[in-house]
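Thread: Newbie trying to understand structure tokens

Hi all, I'm a second-year student working on a class project, and my supervisor (Dr. K.) asked me to get a predicted structure for one chain before our next meeting. I've only ever worked with sequences, so writing a 3D structure as a token string is new to me. If someone could post the tokens and maybe explain what I'm looking at, I'd be very grateful. Here's the chain:
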Amino acid sequence: MSLFFTFPKIDHPRVVAAIGDAEKKTSGEIRVVISRRKIAEPVTEAQKQFERLGMTATSHRNGVLILLAPRSRTFAVIGDTAVHEKCGDAFWTELAVAMTEHFKRGDFTAGLVHGIEHAGALLADHFPRSADDRNELPDDIEETD
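---
Reply by user tm_fold:
Sure, no problem. This is what the structure looks like when written as tokens:
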């Protein structure tokens, strides 16, 4: 008998719109990566994807990455150096707990949107958008195997 995992449906337009809305208020950058494979160490994988996507090259070092790996039932939310300096570990823990509730119910879109909105609010507080700000990274969802 073989079992296969059905990859969850994620409302890409809704997630991308949430990223765009959040970034209208901040110079920060938010990216979402969804992995189709099992990941044993989500934070390590998120750090790898953060580098691969060029997120350390933003002008203010204020990027946030949400990595979701439904197959291994894991996720990670990480921020660049300037973001972590402003919010510390408590914010990331609180955000992860809130996102987990959505993911446990199988509502991956709501969990991602929740994470994006909260990360966006944090970024807007500490890194408000300036008149000459430009979007340094794409807002689309990156899917990896």
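A couple of things are worth pointing out once you decode it. The two ends are 24 Å apart (CA to CA). The chain has one domain: 30-144. Feel free to ask follow-ups in this thread.
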